[in-house]
Specification:
Elements: H1 19-29, E1 34-38, E2 41-44, H2 45-62, E3 69-73, H3 78-90, E4 93-96, H4 103-113, E5 117-121, H5 125-133, E6 140-144, H6 155-163, E7 175-176, H7 177-182, E8 202-206, E9 214-218, H8 220-234, E10 243-246, H9 253-264, E11 269-272, H10 278-288, E12 292-295, H11 297-303, E13 319-322, H12 329-341, E14 348-353, E15 360-363, E16 373-377, E17 382-386, E18 400-405, E19 412-413, H13 417-423, E20 424-426, E21 432-442, E22 448-453, E23 458-460, E24 463-465, H14 467-475, E25 480-490, E26 494-503, H15 511-524, E27 533-536, H16 550-562
Amino acid sequence: MEQEPYRQREHLEYPEATMFELVEKVSKEYPDWPAYEFYNKKTTYSGFLRRIERAARAFWAYGIKEGDAVTICMPNTPQAIDCFYALDRIGAVANMVHPLSAQTEITDYLNISESKIILTVDLFYEKVEKACGDADHPVTILACRMQEEIPFYLVPVYIMKKGREYLKFPRSPHLLWTEFLKRGDSGEEPPRPAFDKNRTSVVLYSGGTSGMPKGICLSDNNFNACAIQGVEAIGVKIRAGLTMLSCMPLFHGFGLGINIHTVLIHGACCILMPTFNSKSYAAMMKKKKPTFLAGVPTIYEALLHMPQLDGLDMSFLRGMFCGGDSLSVELKKKVDKFLKDHNATIQIREGYGLTECVTASCLTPRDDYRENSIGLPFPDTVYGIVNPGTDDVLGPGEEGEIILKGPTVMLGYLKMPEETAKTLRRLPDGDIWLYTGDLGHMDEDGFVYFKQRIKRLIITNGYNVNPAQIENVIDSIPEVSYSCVIGVKDPRRIQKVKAFIVPADGVEPGEELKSRIMEQLTLHIAKYALPREIEFRKELPKTLVGKVAFRVLEQEEENKISGNEETVNE
């Protein structure tokens, strides 16, 4: 007898509770089950709850109150997870920042959020200290160490490999995390803030299309709805005893919303990975046999070339989900074959979303894949297609801008009312719709098809990169006339950043100029967004209105890859 196709419910119930309160509820239901694991060291839900409460008392004792912002500039570590939920416990705002951000970017994030404290790990202390020194207000640094959380028998190995040069760090600390926690040991219990679905609980940052990255204001309700919708959409119950290999970072909507919060409020266990490399990922796959994987295409591309996984029985997998960038038809076929060859009974499923709605809001159904489709919207999420530049709704099969509405849509951009008004619009139905800046269409059955971005963004390793931000830095260098930055196809990163640069009159292009440019970029641009290639030219193609024709450069690079060196006409 054939199994009836799975169909998700259209409408769900969302509790009027904070993110912390949902974790607290699960902690009382499954006190002895592991909440997270870090280098083989497991923390139970009851232990996790105690750690959250201790950190919350420490923040409260230090003077952090409801509405205050604290920046978390951390990889996936226990301290970062504890801190995130502790801030939610007292009603403070968690300002999530990539630890590989450039020094000037961190300063900007501190300023726009008005953060009073920043939590970072010893590896990044010096950069963070300089960033705080340039902030427009006093910022206290909380410094923690990796060896505080790994099992004692691994500490010597960690110190020999990575931690030796940081043993004396922080040299002039504002506060050590371990000492900071003691402040709350004899302090009073903080009051519980009332649930408010319109309160900003988290700020995540998007690449943006021009200028500084935008701070995206998200609520408890946004995250909780995403977690509840996501489990309904995948059609596989997440429960105590199951595990997620949590490799996607918590400063990323996909990492925080799916890899961590969705897992924790359903009683499963996050296997925390602070960084990704193929060797350690393969080792974790073999040793931990996780139930679920959620990552970007680059992770799954790497999965295909991991000899450590040869012959591994992967029947333990119940779900593999891909987001952060488009999953090509070719890569899906390769991954699906890889799974079948390794005895897995699942297929990779692509999701679509953006940080402005936490993360995924659309997912390929479990048993109804349609080529090039990104699937069906989550429950209570409605998609539409409008004629670009207008609010005119288009019909099935007609291509236009993807818009959506639902309980995960952001509150707005931090201190950017004009940008918020462009992106969040109230339509005649009375609801607020999110304009994604992406082109696509829907078929008659409601399946969504993504084509390309209207916004000029580069996606590398799942991160949004703003070309204009890089160009602004390059163009500020006296030896440079002008530049253009594009994304070029890359087998490992999906796209890599390439800069085309026209030197100023009389300036000789070469390694010396390239080093000068990279030195300036490193100060202002996050490491993951730095150009992997620089090409000097005497001039760049222009449009009829005199702008650099970046599409022409993109097509030239595409032609090189395909072996087709045809002349491209704008």
